[in-house]
Amino acid sequence: MEPGDLFIPVDTIEEEATLTCDAKGVPPPQYRWSLNGTLINLGLDRRRRLSGGNLIISSLDRYQDVGMYQCMAFNAAGAILSRRASLQFAYLDHFKVHTRSAVSVREGQGVVLLCGTPTSSGDLTYAWVFNEYPYFVQQDNRRFVSQQTGNLYVAKVEPSDVGNYTCVVTNSVTKGKVHSSPTALILKTDGVMGEYEPKIEVNFPDNVSAARGSTVTLECFALGNPVPEITWKRANGVPFPSKVKMKYSNAVLEIPSFQQDDTGGYECVAENRMGKNTATGRLAFYAKPQWIQAVKDAALAIEERLHWECRANGKPKPSYTWLKNGQQLLSGDRITVVDGVLSVSALALSDAGMYQCVAENKHGVIYFAAELMVLASPPDFTGNVLRALLKAKAGTTVTLECKPQAYPVASILWKKGNLVTLSPDGTLRLANVSKSDAGGYTCFARNRFGMSSTTGRLLVTDPTRITQGPVDMEIIVGESIVLPCQVASDPVLDVSFSWAFNGQLIAKGDGHFELVGGRTAGDLMIRNIQLYHAGKYICVVDTDVESLSAVAILIVKGPPSPPDSVTVEEVTDSTAQLAWSRGRDNGSPIANYFIQTRTPFTVGWQRVNTVPEIIDGNTLTATVVDLNAWVEYEFRVLARNSVGVGEPSPVSVRTRTEDAVPDAAPGDVGGGGGSRSELVITWEPVPEELQNGESFGYIIAFRAFGEVSWTHVATSAPGASRYVYRNDSIAPFSPFHVKVGTYNSKGQGPFSPVVTIYSAEIEPSGMPAGVWARSVSASEIEVNWQALSYSPERVLGYEVVYWEDDTKPETMGKVRVPWNQTVVTVSGLAANTQFFLTVSAFNTAGTGPFLPAINVTTKKPPPAQPPMNIEWTLIGSQLSLYWEPVAATESESEVTGYKVSLSYRRQRHKEVNALTTANSTAELTLPEEEEDYVIRIQTLSEGGLGPASEPIRVHRLSKITPGCHGYGALTTRTVQSAAVGGGPV
Q: Which residues lie within the region annotated Disordered (predicted)?
C-alpha cells in the first residue's frame, strides 16, 4: 500500500495526518520516510512517528509539513521506494480591509469589476452580491462571473445595474468564504455611450493542456453595444460531439471526459451588428505514465547476464531511471542503463537485491519493483535423479537426460563401464538399442563449486505383439459378444489393456462393458448390445516401453427405426391413402410395412387391411380399406426386417372419413308389454361408429296381422332404443309385424328382419280362491290357493304379498310363482310375528284383484342354547353320544328332539350323515377307512333347528384302542379329543 496525496484544511492542523505505507517481504521489512528528498530523522522529530510503515504527523504546520513525501521499505534482500505523495494545506486568507473606489461609466458602456482574490491554496469559486446579501448577480448574456479570474463582466451597463457590488470567494476544500469590500457602480451624466463592436475581455490561454478523462472548461466573454452574441467552433470544422455543453449564454464551453479526439484548435467568436472579434487557442492532451511492459522477479546463476526492459506510455513520452535498493543506477563497467533497459553482464553475488524501474513525465511518476536473486551452488540431482530401471524396446531410440540443478551450469560426462562420453546439453541418445546396450549408466556433473553424479540401469526388452485382435463383426441387438485382444510380451514388462469406443475411452461401471482375461488377454465383453454400440472399437495395449492397438468395426443390426412423416393424402368413406418416409433399417433391409389405426371407439391400436395387402420395404404409400364412414381415424406405420418389428411411427393427424348411407340395421328388435292400447317396440341401437354420417336416426315400421301396408314412424335420436305406439283401437295382446331401419343425411339404410310382437294386454280379472296359510317354522310360512279355472286374460303366474302391519307399508314383501304353481313358502320372516297375506294373478299388464287378507303368526324361535356337556364312547366303529337335555325358555319353542350330524372326507369330498332322536343320547356307526370325523348336535323344535354344539373331533387312532372315551367341556371353545391308548380318557 502506497501513500496518497493529502490536501488538509488549515483549520484542522491540530489533528493528525497519516501517510500510508505497507510492504511484504521476508524477513518483514522496515521503513524510512523522506520529505522533499531529505531523510526524516524520526529519532529527533517529536511530531512525526511510525505506526508499522505508516508515517503519522501530529500538530500539523502549514509551513514545515508541506511538500513531497516518499516511503522506503527495506530488509536483508534489498530496498524499494514508494510513489511520491504530496501533502498540501488548503486555506483562504481574508480580503484586505480598505474602501474601494467607485466605478463611473456611461449607460451603454461595458465595465469590468475586479475581485482582487486574496492569497489561498485549493480550488476557489466566485460569486458577486448585488447591494446586499443574499441577492446575487444572475449571469446572462449581459453579465458574466469568471471562475478563472473572479472578476464580474457587464457587456453593456443599464440604469438597473447601479449599486454596490461585493465579490464572494469560496474555498472548495475548506468550504470557507470571504467577502471583499463593496465597489459602487454609478452612471455618468454626460451622455449615453454609442454603439461599438465587441471587445473580448475574457479569453482562454493560447495552449491548454488537459488530462485524459478530465472536464475541460473554456471561458469567453466580450463587452459591446449592442450586447455581443458568443459562438464557438473548432479550427478543423468538425462539429462538437453531443457530450459538449454550452453554459451561461455560451460564455462557457464544457468538455467532459476529455479524450485524444478532443485536442486541437478552438475559436470563440463575439459578434454584434457593429462587428465581431475572435479569440483562439489550442487544447493539448497529456497523460500520466502507465506501464505497458513491466519486469518480473529473476533468479539467475552467477556469471549469467541480466536483461530487464520496462516500457510505459504517457504524454509527453516518459523518461526512465533504474534504482537498486532505492539508489539510482548509472551505467558502468558491467551495467548498462539505456531508455528503460537495464543490462548487467557476468552477475556477481553483490548484484542481488531489489530493483525498480521508474517512468516519469511532468505529470506523474510511477515505480515498478522486481527482485534479482543471484544463485551459486554445486550440481545437485535432488528430485531429478536417473530412473533406477529404465525399460526400452529393442530397435528404438533411448534418451537419457542429465539435468542437475547447478549454478553456474555444470559440464556433463556419461560413463558405461569403460566407455566415457561428453554431453554438452546433458542428454545421451542411444539409437536402435539392442540387448548389448543394456547395463548401468552414470552421469557426472561438475562446476567450479563441486561435482555430483546419478546412476540408472537400462533394460532392453523384446517387442510386444498382438497375437489375436478383434475383427469386424455383425451382431443382433440384445445379443452379447466378446472382442478378443491377446498379446505375447517380454515377461519383465507390465502389460495393461484399455478399450476405446468411437474415440472415447470405455469407463468402468458401464453395465454393458466388462474387461475379461488375464495378464496376456484384455478381451472386451459387451452384454445386451444396443444399436448405439455400433462403431469403431480399439484395443489399446500399454507396456512400460510401448503402446499398440488393434481396431475392429462392429455392425449392430436391430429392428427398423420408426418410419416418419405419416400423412393422409386422400380419404373416401371407406379408404384412406397414406404416405410416409423411411426410417433407418439398422443394418438389415426393411422387408415390409404394416399399418395400424385407432378411433375413439376402439381399445388400443388395431391392424388394418391395405392395398397392396403386403407392403414391401421399397413402398412408401398404401391405401387403407374397410374403414367405417364418418369416423375419425389416426394411423401409424411399423416396419419389419429380418431382426423384427420396430417401434411405431409418430401418429398421423386425426382424419375423418367421408359420410355415406347407413349400411347397418338395428339388432335385437322386439317389444311387447306396456300399458293398455300400447304397442311397445324395442331394438339395440346402432353403434356410433356404424352410423356413417350426421343426422342419424331410426325408421320404425309396424302392421297388424292380416294388414298389407306398413305404418312408418321416424325418430332422430341416434341413441334411441324404444318406441311406444298408442291407439285405443288396439286390441289387447294383438300380434304385430315389426321392423326397424336407419337413415342419416346421406339417405336411408337397411331394415332389420321382421319380427312378431304383441300389444299390451289387460291384467287378469279373476281372483284366486281358497287362500290359506300355516306357519312352518319361526321364519317360514306356507301359503296355498286354488288356481283360476278360467280367465279371459292371460295369466303368467301368481303373486303373494305379505306384510306385518297395515300401518307400515315399508314392511311389505312379495313372492311370484309360475301359473302352474299353487303353493309357495315365504322365508326369512321374523319369529313369533303376525303377518297378513293376499294372493292375486298377474301378467305383463300387472296384477289382478285379490280377496281380503288372511293372517298367520310365525312360530316361536328355537332355543338359543346349543346342546352342551357332550360325552362319547368309541368301541370299534360304534360311537355312543350323551349330552345334557336343552330346556326352552317361555319365548322359545319347545324341544321336540335332536339332530346329530356326522361329517368326514371321502376321496377328497366332504360327506355328511345325519340322524334324529327324541332323547339326549345317540348311537352312530362310523364308516370304515376314514381318518377324522366331526360331530355336531342341534335341537329340533317347531321353530326349526337350533344352534349347533361345538364340534367334536374324533381321530382314526381312537378306533384302534377299545374303550376310548371323550368329554366335551361346557365352554364356548372348540373341543378337541386326543386319542390315548390303554384306558378311558
A: 648-676
